[in-house]
């Protein structure tokens, strides 16, 4: 079995439109917080997704 890479984190990208829709991505631990403009299917628009805590 392969070893997991400990230098990366799984992060949740939550929609700033307030719909509750999210994407899960991985990023290096040393990198700054992620923010992307991606498609939110609940409102049928592209909106900003910002990193939030995974539960």
Attribute tags:
single chain, 55 residues, mainly beta, Rubrerythrin, domain 2, four-stranded antiparallel beta sheet, 4 strands, 0% helix, elongated
Descriptive overview:
The chain has no helices and four strands. By secondary structure, the protein is mainly β. The protein has one domain: Rubrerythrin, domain 2. Strands 2-1-4-3 form a four-stranded antiparallel sheet, with no helix packed on it. The protein is elongated, with a radius of gyration of 13 Å.
Q: Termini, distance in Å?
A: 26 Å
Largest sheet: 4 strands, antiparallel
CATH structural class: Mainly Beta
| Class inferred from helices and paired strands | mainly beta
Supply the CATH superfamily name.
Ribosomal protein L33
Which sequence of SSEs, written as H and E, runs from N to C?
Answer: EEEE
Compute the number of strand runs.
4
Number of helices: 0
Main location: mitochondrion
GO molecular function: structural constituent of ribosome
Organism: Schizosaccharomyces pombe (strain 972 / ATCC 24843)
Family: Belongs to the bacterial ribosomal protein bL33 family.
Concise description?
The chain has strands spanning 8-15, 22-28, 35-40, 45-52.
Question: What's the helix and strand layout?
Answer:
Layout lengths: L7 E8 L6 E7 L6 E6 L4 E8 L3
Antiparallel strand pairs: 1-2, 1-4, 3-4
Pfam families: Ribosomal_L33
Organism: Schizosaccharomyces pombe (strain 972 / ATCC 24843)
Keywords: Mitochondrion, Ribonucleoprotein, Ribosomal protein
């Amino acid at each position: 079995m392969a070893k997991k890479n400990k230098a990366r984190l799984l992060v949740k990208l939550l929609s700033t439109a307030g719909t509750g829709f999210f994407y899960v991505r991985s990023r290096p631990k040393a990198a700054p917080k992620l923010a992307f403009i991606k498609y939110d299917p609940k409102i049928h628009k592209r909106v900003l997704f910002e990193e939030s805590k995974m539960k």
